Amino acid sequence: KNVQKYFKDEYNRETRFIPNGVSKPEIVKAQIIKDKYNLKKDEYILFLGRIVPEKGIHYLIDAYNKIKTNKKLVIAGSASDTDSYYAELKEKAKDNKNIIFTGFVQGKELDELYSNAYIYCLPSDLEGMPLSLLEAMSYGLCCLTSNIKECSEVLEDYGVTFKKSNIKDLKEKLEDLCNNKKEVDKYKKSAQDITKGVKEEVVPAIKNNFDKMKKEIIEEVTKDFKVIAESMALLVANNPESKLAVVENISKIGISKEVKEEVVKVIEEEVQAKEEQKKEIEKVVEKLESNMIETL
Question: Rounded distance, CA 36 to CA 31, Å?
Fold first, then answer.
């Protein structure tokens, strides 16, 4: 919604907000991650995403290093183009054996990390629409995120937020959740409840909204193409045979079948009207010529 507001403020353009979505996953037991990293269910805090500065992982490591907990911290994701940042994080974590860097993960290992985490933490300074947060919620995880709108609007009341970039606040929230399993379980249940309702309520609502939006877009685009079609029709009015070339060109445009049909229809109507108008003019001219001959 922040992006939607930006386009309105910056370009005065109305946009349509279509939220991201994820499929309901299957919860799996810890097998690969147990053998590989000695990780067991509810015994680790998880960050999963791109390892880039805007994700705020340095805040998470600094906050984690300040708390007393038996929970491990798992940083899952690849370094992308920021090897220096990855090295900086490794340096911060070098004296804490409970901080684990997995590198890039996928498939069953990824599923296991989500399925068995105690908390999912996303400490970002900047986000678009965080798919990893949606995925974590779909696995029924208690989520702790920064309070930027892109996260808080997704999380609503189904998780915990801390003040963006504030290590002290993150440390306090993290410590509180690590020491309060009952609170974590409450958020896990609420995350599961919200994802249960997606199929029955949200999916039909999105479909109805999409159908309505599709109709509106077709109407808007058709209106624009009517103007184009009318202009093109004027150009070929004196040469109706050119209509076929115009229609052929329209058929190559990357627009929907409905819009193409509407544009072709407008062209045909315009050309037909011009042809009839031309015939009427020719009749008048012919009659005038005939009258002039008779007069002479």
Answer: 9
Distance, CA of 158 to CA of 140 (rounded, Å): 10
Strand partners, 101: 75
Contact 44, 74 (CB under 8 A): yes
- In this structure, are residues 69 and 96 in contact, taking their beta carbons and an 8 Å threshold? no
In sequence order, the β-bridge partners of residue 73 are 45, 99
- Would you say 142 and 173 are in contact if contact means Cβ atoms under 8 Å apart? no
Given a contact cutoff of 8 angstroms between Cβ atoms, the answer to whether 47 and 114 are in contact is: no
From CA 76, how far away is CA 49, in angstroms rounded?
6
Residues 6+ apart with CB under 8 A from 88: 58
| C-alpha to C-alpha distance for 198 and 94, rounded to whole angstroms | 42
Reported as a single tens digit per residue, the pLDDT across 28-68 is: 999 999 999 999 999 999 999 999 999 999 999 999 999 99
Q: Which amino acid does the sequence have at 15?
A: T
Cα–Cα distance for residue pair 129/21, rounded to 1 Å: 10
How many residues in the chain?
296
Q: Which residue is it, tokens 């970002």?
A: 124
pLDDT in tens, 171-217: 999 999 999 999 999 999 887 766 554 555 455 655 666 667 667 76
Please state, in angstroms and as integers, the Cα–Cα distance from residue 232 to each residue in 218, 242, 257, 261, 277, following that order: 20, 10, 19, 15, 17
The phi and psi torsions of 100 (rounded to 5 degrees) equal -115, 130
Cα 245 to chain centroid distance, Å, stands at 39
pTM of the model: 0.65
